[in-house]
Amino acid sequence: MFIFGNFIIAIANILDIILDIYKWIIIIAAVISWMNPDPYNPVVRFLYAITEPALRPIRRIIGFRLGPVDISPIIVILAIIFIQRFLIGSLIELAYKMKGGVLL
Q1: What's the CA gap between 47 and 28, in Å, rounded?
Q2: Confidence (pLDDT) at 64
Q3: Cα angle, residue 26 at apex, residues 94 and 44 outer, rounded to 5°
Q4: Widest distance between CA atoms in the chain
Q5: d(Cα 61, Cα 72) in Å, to the nearest integer?
Q6: 15: which residues sit within 8 A by CB, 6+ positions away?
Q7: Residue 38: what are its φ and ψ, rounded to 5°?
Q8: Block mean pLDDT (10 aa), the chain, length 104
Q9: Under 8 Å between Cβ of 99 and 1
Q10: Distance between the two ends of the chain, CA-based, in angstroms?
Q11: What is the pLDDT of residue 104?
């Protein structure tokens, strides 16, 4: 059973890294959006294509109730942090219990 526990730990670590990278991509996209970037720049298009699927539903729900300030990146980053702390932490704890070891 320890092999399956190690597999879950590896998956949890990979998910944690992917979520960290995505969090930084959202931060970079938010900072670039303050500078009025060229919409035809490949980097800007890539950032928009990667972040818009996560930000669009939040914008649709919240809208611009706080004026011109877009808080959707903050909400998505908070959701990512919650997922990292709750889901990934729970996966790692489950894996250690499956291995029969003590969680450090």
Answers
A1: 8
A2: 63
A3: 140
A4: 55
A5: 10
A6: 87, 88, 91
A7: -70, 120
A8: 88 96 96 88 94 92 76 94 95 88 60
A9: yes
A10: 19
A11: 57
